[in-house]
Amino acid sequence: MSTFIKDFIERETVSRRNFLLASAAGLGSMALPMAMGRDAAMAAENPALAWSYRDRASAYWNAVVSGGENFVESLGKTKADMTSLINEGSSEKSLADIKAFLAKNSGNCAIACDANDSPNARPVVEAVKASGGYISTIWNKTDDLHPWDIGDNYVSHMTWSDEKPAEETARLLFAAMGGKGGVVHLGGIPANNPAVERLNGLKNALKDFPEIELLDAQPADWDTTKAAELMASFITRYGDKITGVHCANDNIAYGVIEALKAEGLEGTIPIVAYDGNPEAVQMVMDGTLLATVFTNPYWGGGISLALAYHAAIGTFKPSEEPHEHREFYGPTVMVTKDDAAAFKAKYIDSTPTYDWNDFWGPSNGGIVYK
């Protein structure tokens, strides 16, 4: 981490002194400029805090938001001091809610956000910059959108290198299938980066297994109900040709299991998933799932908001950081039956304590574009 703490304290002391002098001179009530014109005194004031995400019904997003809340509590605030902007899977609502939050707080905001789909990231970060707020994003953005091109207000973007872990789960699945048969893939929202990468991981593994056929790959939009309906249609269409199922996330796997159960097929077809949710880890321990992949959403949720907050108050200047601190991968851990019990004890039965000032400690290097 760069040595900016000492510089920040010195800047803060000077800024507060200048602000007090300005107030004494009758200038304290002047309107403060927005965007890049915001001065250090304004940046040092408490920014309004928010997390913009899909929904909290999902164990994954609940973990993300819980991490954000833990960071907020580390500041001596309460969970209620962080606003949840729930977009319900709508990119339009995501953008509208963020704009409303910015307007309500005159741009003095620190926001963490999953933009819901990749194209929505640009209008979101441009709205934040125009208002003078600060934002860190996760998962979804287009490859041509970079924080350093937008400026300090777009603090950082974190994603996970899903292609390799998804390939590893596919290889585990193929081994369980005996190296032959038919596999179906149930994916996420097609415009989501993780959905694309997880399907690519499956396709990469298939290159080494000529006797395994990809029967079908369709989006289930990360949704359990849609996954159950899609899997039921796959069973109708392909029947006993299906000898393995590759799921883009745990919620999808739950739907697949329900569909198999309805047909009396539960436990007869190996399944792999992604996210490392508590229910999925238990299913790995029970043998219902072969594997899942943990992306530490709790840490991701906390550190994304921490980065936006510290940039907003002036603890560090994002443009002075290397590119790998502006765009970086989060950690991934594959969970199999061999290590599921130890994993559960460490990450589920108890929550590791994180230093929210260690911005990049558990990260996995800068994002690489193909």
Automatic annotation (TrEMBL):
Keyword Signal attached: yes
InterPro entries: Peripla_BP_I, SBP_2_dom, TAT_signal
Presence of the UniProt keyword Nucleus in the record: no
Pfam families from the UniProt entry: Peripla_BP_4
Main location as per UniProt: other
Localization in the cell: Cell envelope
SUPFAM superfamilies per the UniProt record, alphabetical: Periplasmic binding protein-like I
Sequence ranges assigned to domain Periplasmic binding protein in this UniProt record: 52-314
UniProtKB keywords: Signal
Family: Belongs to the bacterial solute-binding protein 2 family.
Listed name of the protein: Sugar ABC transporter substrate-binding protein
Source species of the chain: Cypionkella sinensis
Lineage of source species: Bacteria, Pseudomonadati, Pseudomonadota, Alphaproteobacteria, Rhodobacterales
